[in-house]
Amino acid sequence: MRRTTVVRGLGAVLAVLLVIGLAADAYAQSFFDSLPPIQGLDSATFAGDTVITDSTGKTVLADVGNQGDHRVAVKLASVAPIAIQATVAIEDRGFYTNPGFDAAGIIRAAFDNIRAGHIVGGGSTITQQLAKQQFLTPDQTVSRKIKELALAYELSQTYSKDQIMELYLNKSFYGSQSYGIEAAAESYFQLPASKLDLAQAAMLAGLPQAPTEWNPVLHPDAAKTRQTEVLQAMVRSNFISQEDMDKAVAEKLTYYSPTNHYKAPHFVDYVLAELRQLGFQPGIQQLNVQTTLDYNMQTIGESIVSSNLAANTWRDKRGVLSSGLVAVQPTTGDILAMVGSPSYNSTGGQINFTTIPRNMGSSMKPYTYGAVINARAATVDTPVYDGPTPLVYKDCCNTTKIYNYDGKSHGVLPLKKAMGNSLNIAAVKVELSIGVPAVLSWMRNLNVRPRYVIANPDGSFAGYDANAPADEYGPSLTLGGYPITLLEHVDGIATYADMGVYHSPEAVLKVTDSHGQVLYQTHPDQRARQAIDPGVAFIMAQIMADDQNRCMIFGCNSALHWKDRTVAAKTGTTDNFKDAVTVAFTPDLAVGLWVGDILGNSYTMVGGSDGVFVASPGVHSFVSQALAGVDGSRWYTPPPGVAAGPGNSWYLADTTQPSRLAGQDRRFSTGQGAARPGRGSHRACSVTRRGRRDDGARGRASSTQRRVDRPHRQPGRGGRRAGARKARQVEGDRQRHAGGGACRHRHAYGRAAGPLARGHRGDARAAPRGRTRADGGDHARRTRGPHGRHRRHRHRGRGGRAHRRI
User: pTM of the predicted model, to two decimals?
Assistant: First the structure.
């Protein structure tokens, strides 16, 4: 009886296993049947055009993929063996022995994903990458990864290793619109892939994983670092010796920029990057891409950037002057025009100056004033004392002197005129009435992300941190001391233009395949959010559009004023005249124009090259031409929650009294002009975090300091009138922290912070003599002595530059 029971039990188990086996076999068969066929792969069939058009779909901006200099299929025998070895070393050391996947690599990737809490990598081999590029989407999902493994295994069973390597080298994207190693070799080095030497091969082999970030034309330092990583991998794989590596590292390579015949080439580059982020493979897939670009507006922008630059080249005879313009539709965030540089094929022309961080000077002030009005800390008529001069700002580590452009104070002004005339002393007082962190939070809410500059131990530029803690930022935030991109600046200002609704910038309207099937379509409503109070946006528009608010400094009827339409505008100029900026908006358009020197910090424009003279005329012309068919009387209807006052003043309905700025009490009335944190502050001083440098400058073609725009009278070409004024640079006496490091600012001011009144005696502690930028910085700057002669100073310190002039 017991034996019978056991036999029956075993029979049941076997039956269950048989059913499971049959089900698994059926599922496996079904799974493999669902995979795309892998037969007949040929590199010559990879080409597929991606056609990019303007917003109408009628003007072709680019036909990516069918140009011979972009994609050239070659046999593996026509590729230098050293290039193949470099690819194997950095991508897949076990390529010639694995079955298409690396089990150990997958396990390592799995542990990395578990530690990260999300998928950060997949341990892909060359064969897996080929399978993903040819058959699958870039989505990081488990099901896609399983299909990738299965296809990689099938490829290994169907094709030889040399065939797979040939397919991969011809399929990969190497940046600069070069698909395949042959096109990349011709583009970067102007020679065929068969002639690549070790240094060149290592440079190219490192590109496919991040072709834009490691592009040697755009980012030579990052590319050199990646080349070294490839060479080290080759040494570990015994493909080369250490001596070979040292020679290759020492070899000075010459890179060539590809000639580009696209219309709106910088915008096309931007679109291609967005397509890749969406998971498409432009230049490989056959796609029709309808963009947001208004080609008529684009041609206007290109013409104005060129003509405006030509009118200003005399200002920078020693260096190289460049320019960029970007315009967006405020109600959608659609990019209407993008001119990244005056000439794409000129020296430095491929750099898109609308998407790399630059210092924007006092064009940043509208964010500060908007934040303060929103906080109900002031109204447009709140009196602000623009003085004393200098305004002395002190904390535990620094003493900073803040000046206006003319070294003078201008008495008590209503807040709207302090903003319109771009007075630095008043701007810093207004900023500190609610605290730097509050202003920073306001900016970030509009996706304006001031970059905190990171330095290497030797003080050289190491990168940016757009998400640095708020206590790393200094009062120079309102004066443009931290770089941002022109695109995010214009998009942030466009939030004011759409009454507080923020739209993320968009370049692609629709993507269809060769059969017309829609693969992607943007939805502006899904990219929109009510970021700020419409009343605040309306009030800021009124301030920036009223020419009377800026007549004292800029003069009435300057380039910031349009006689035939209402336009809100603001300028910015960096100290030493490195950069000049103007942003402007109407209900139909937001635009920004930047002009600046792109060489080292010692190369600048001549004195008097303020934004109102250098950039504003171009913006004025662009707005007039771009909106030629639009009714100039179009402006905003006052939204609910605002109340009208005298003299074109508008208030938030719940805050109509001018009141006083926080901190204007008798505690700050000693007349000595010092300002420092008061009650409500939790400032502290600590040793600087290693590797940080908060000077707002890159060590590249960037500004080192800010200036305010000059009075409306244009100085002579030699900038002689500016010479004496330029002597009044921001001065500061900086103290070292007791621990031996530079101090870190902690700007967390409460409403009772006190740098707002006519003068607080401030910190009586003695400080070492010397000059420094406000909040420090690790770079040299030029100043003028009493007789106009240049003096060179080296400064080390921390914090944003609180001495910008518009």
Answer: 0.65
